[in-house]
Specification:
heterodimer, A: 272 residues, alpha/beta, eight-stranded mixed sheet, 15% strand, B: 179 residues, Ubiquitin Conjugating Enzyme, five-stranded antiparallel sheet, 4 helices, globular
Amino acid sequence: MPFLSPTDRRKKLLETPLMFSRLIVAGFPIDKLLSAKALIVGAGGLGVIVSEILARTGLGELHIVDRDVVKEENFNRLGYNRADIGKPKAMILAERLLRLRNNPSIPKKYHISVYHYHNDIIGWEKLEDIISSIDIIFSCTDNELARREINFLAMKYKKPMIDGATSIDGLRGTIITVIPCRTPCFECYYGSQTSIKVNHFERIGQCDASIATTMSIVAALQADQGLKVLLNYGKIHSMVKVDLRESVSIVTIDNVKPRDNCPIHRRFCDEF
Amino acid sequence: MSFDDLLEELEALERLLRVAKEKRKSIENKLLELYSFETIASPVDKNWDKRVEEEERAFKLFKESIYGDILPHFLSLKHSAQNKQYFYVLFRGKKVEPAIIKLPRLYPELPPNSLISISKSIEVYTSHTDAKKCLGNLVKGRWDEGGKMGIAHWLLFVEVYLILMSSPIKLHDATKFYS
């Protein structure tokens, strides 16, 4: 584990802003995180929490993209206030993270760069440039089409992707970690040729439930898996299932191989 | 409940599922009878240009089908020269205006993503959390994942959506009949 030794922790504590002192106590190699870049796709119930955790943990650069504006129905989840109604979610979130990290009292070295885009990712030409330049992708969107688009580009540019999703009833969640060409990708699990069918989250005329408890847990686990990938420690799980219906259940699924006939693996991974 | 009762219920459920699947299949077949694409290529494939030609041809065929104009809200379809994932369509709502259709990289395995006109008089997505913008289960299960359906087929789903939107019946009640 590349964490700081007790001696390094003491030394580092003296030169690190108070904001990160507890991370140093935990031995987190803050310098490594300061140079890390992440893309967050979706600034809703999951994306808000993932972004906050990453910014508060010291990530150096965040790109946030979301096609929506803040609406009344978003308020049962964490992240936005009434004053934000009608404004682009990505912009509001970026402004908040910048205020948090880029305070004049904090040395520039510890500042964060946040880029926000009020865009639909489908057909958005800039997306490829962003993905090719970052270290990790957090997929926090609410629909299958967008997920499969991100998965395609994550595999193309060999970038790890951590996908989070919650169920129609709002009480279950799934976190999928994709390490390109090593673990199954989103297409391996939910592609058109698989027998498992992902639920289209939305149905015409009907909205699905979303509950802050489930979303917070799923988002926190997404961030946890992402930090493990970035800092190369602990076990990366191919899939984590969360179920809060009757009890509290968190199940990890490992040792899953990419699907033999996955068209995305065939296209982008040499050994296929 | 006895084991026999349970078995009987399971058999009844299986029959219902079979009928539902057949019904769905017959709708899919009817859509493919209108036109079935020969070129299976996505915007990231080499032979995409050939598919683009076929998309525009299929649209014209739908406009002049044996049933008459089955896409009355859409006047023309043209691909974008700048972006392979974009098509432009002339939409006839209260006024005539251009609209953009965005395709995912995995199209035609996946259906088009969205249709948005310049003034946003129409803004629909295959999948969206805002239920009023979402085609959702109109498309779900009816889209041919083998790539034989195209933009013209998807616009037919949009036509159904427009009918439902103008109906006095609540959307989610109305869609029960189409599911």
